[in-house]
Amino acid sequence: MTELKYVGKYIPIHDAYEKVKGKLQYVADMEMDGMLHAKLLLSPIAHGVIKSIDVTKAEALPGVVKVYTYKNTPQNLYNSQKWHVGLEVVKDERLFTDKVRFVGDRVAAVVAKDKSIAEKAIELIEVQYQELPIVLDPEEALMEETIKIHDHGNVIMEKEISVGNVNEAMENAPIVVEDFVDTQKVHHAAMEPHICMTAIDSTNGLLTIWTPCQVVFQVRLIVAEALGLSLNRIRAIKTTVGGSFGGKGQPILEPVCAYFTYDLGVPVKLQLDRAETISSTRTRNATIGRVKTAVDKEGNILARDIDVLVDAGAYFTNGEAVTIAMGKKAFRLYDIKNQTYKGTAVYTNTPIAGACRGYGSPQIHALTEINIDNTAKKLGLDPVEFRLKNLVKPYAKDPTGGPELGNARVIDCLLKGMEVFDWKSKYNRPKATGRFVKGVGMACATHGSGYYNAYPDFITMDLRVTEDGEAILKASLHDLGCGTIVTIKQIVAEVLDINPDKILVPEADTLVSPFDSAGTQASRVTFVCGAAAKKTAELVKEKFTKHSADILKCNIDDILYKDGFILNKNNPQAMVSYGDMVMLIQTSLKEDISVSYTYKSPANPAVYGVNFAEVEIDTYTGLVRVIDIVAVHDIGKAINPVFVEGQVQGAIQMGIGFALTEEIVIDNKGNVKSNNFSKYHVINAPDMPDVKVHLIEAGEEFGPFGAKSVGEVSTVPIAPAIINGINHALDINITSLPATPEKILAALNNKKNLIGG
Amino acid sequence: MEMEFNVNGIKHILEVDPMERLLDVLRNKLKLTGAKEGCGEGECGACTIILDGVAINSCIVLAAQAAGREILTIESLEKDGELDRLQKAFINNGAVQCGYCTPGMLMSCKALLMKNPAPTEEEIKTAIEGNLCRCTGYTKIIKAVKEAVKDI
Predict the structure, then answer these.
(1) What DSSP assignment string belongs to A542-602?
(2) Cβ contacts (< 8 Å) between B102 and chain A: which residues?
(3) Could you report the predicted ipTM of this complex, rounded to two decimals?
(4) What is the pLDDT of residues A33-78, one digit of tens each?
(5) Taking every annotated instance into account, which residue ranges of this chain make up the domain 2Fe-2S ferredoxin-type (chain B) (predicted)?
(6) Whether residue A472 is found in the same domain as residue A499
């Protein structure tokens, strides 16, 4: 294999210079002449019908331009999850509602000359509600038939995925281990709160939306559906994103703000504060899970039965999709011949759930990986040894008929991590008997690389070599801070042998970017869009070669590319620069060195991550300190290894919070209690352990240069690894996330009582 | 009220409401939008600037409290077209992802180095304990600061 010049190297994120200087504009930094500011009135109650709404005082306040409610806005139903036009989903959202379904539902908005006037006017809107009984607990939602959050009932969907014969295998199994694991709602905690800006663009008269989004074509579609406009009248422009993690995936503010501009004809900015972002945007779905695993005495898994109840919150969004997605993962990590997954999703009068990094994987793996440890314990086996007996091997089949697993290297990850972490000696060392007790835990996880076999997964790219020998790639790409733009440049640079600095890759804009079916979702960007960039660059090169051969009057096979020049290998002195060659081809052949290509992803290989964690628990306070993490990832090939490490380290920070500290706490009236960063605990620098990242780069057939995904899987194994570490240290069985000091102390007390009693 | 502000070495006489936050004066009146608002309660650090040599959250300081004192924002770090060594180290070590916490993070680190040119890893962590980052897990930020002070 020839040595790679750009792939596999570190190149800083494309906008790093502007970011460190504080010069890069986020939407909050953008201004437009005559721009108005909007503020939302969010429901203060969890469930009720609006009996009356009086906006006269608000409208009378000087500086207020208009007040919006359900009475004077379109009432078209939409579903913010819908990212492509063919997606059939229940539509239950509207710009403003006359029936509020959670604390944070949109009741009204004020558009005013400045933010403080809008804030004052919001206080002057008088709303009378007829309160309805509330359902906060998903289990209650399942049983409760009289309180209907939506007319079609509280159960969104039920779905079963099954292979083999679970009942028979369970009945005959010598050992069956059952666990109940619940996971909480969490906030994405992107540092940039939700925001968007809209205006009518003066050149084309388009309703234009500037938004830190993940899918511009989804923004355009949702605005079109909500406002009843044709797609051609709307333009969505992806701006710099101050973090998303799925939280800005679904258009929330965009259709609302777009309507203000559509109605008033002037620019409007709509910005949420942190409390509004926590309670009224999207959360990770909470789950209540039950799992039963049957094994033989040697530690081979015979069967598994999983039942998960998913809390979708007050609106449908992706409640169904995430419930199915989490089920599919259960069949792609261990070789289990008999397995059933049953997923049920329900509405509750709580904040709306949506996409969140890992999309169901963190929840399903918390359930199954805690249970895998408990099963190993029952067998008297080292949990690593137990996993080694059952993990999938490369090119194993998905028993449900799902996409091929591909070059699945989870065993390599596990063996590597075991060695680096020094697992055996740490796992077997005697426990401390004093106040502070250390333990170790580990967990494995899988995720996907795109939508192939589930949803349309294609992207069109236009690539052109310019007259001065540079290149421009037009594609609907969204850099969320992960380094997508540079990653794509590295791939194109490698194929065309052009310095990445000379390749222009603008971000997504529906007016100028060719169509893309799915945006930055589903861990598809490097695997699918990267492969599209590679293929498009290869086609450009093929065209360049063919025409260069015409110009140099030689065979195609005689053409060589060298340091920005093209030459005939039989006449190497006559070197022509890329730019000159483009000019010669234009002049002599009337041809353009450009290609527009639609790449359809042919695969969706599994990726794997294995985390090892060392924890120390203060048995007096129940506080857990994570001391050390080793994260090993089956990545295929790292296009930019520093970006990959950055993804993993950030994902671990998120996962530690999921395991220990982060929770959207809701009181018995449906109010979010943890609606700021003093009550919602994001892990900070002193609490963050050193994270050692190791990569298994064994290549994946359809990935660009062998690459597959990492951005989501990296946040999956950490929480169960930490929980398993706590359980190992204290010989308890925590199965409820987050493992707060209260839960740990209660488990310790329980253990003492059992021993004492 | 008319007040004098010394921002990045430049004096500005500004008409300021007594209740106006320093962050709003910097962002809206002086168009220094490097400092970001992430929480408005002094919990996330995205709005960190340096006031008389100390890193502070400009979202919980009234502009009036900063009048007449020395204010440094992220826009002051680059000198004559040359990035500060902290800025360079952030770029070279992959410490920048989405970038929203970056200006505040850099200012906390700058304030640390102004007082303590050779901080330990623990001191670096303490200096940025009030700066939340959701992208990097802090690892590369800490590495960048260590690299920036290595040659001193």
Answers:
(1) HHHHHHHHHHHTS-GGGEEEETTEEEETTEEEEEEEHHHHHHHIIIII----EEEEEEE--
(2) 19-20, 22
(3) 0.99
(4) 999 999 999 999 999 999 999 999 999 999 999 999 999 999 999 9
(5) 1-77
(6) yes
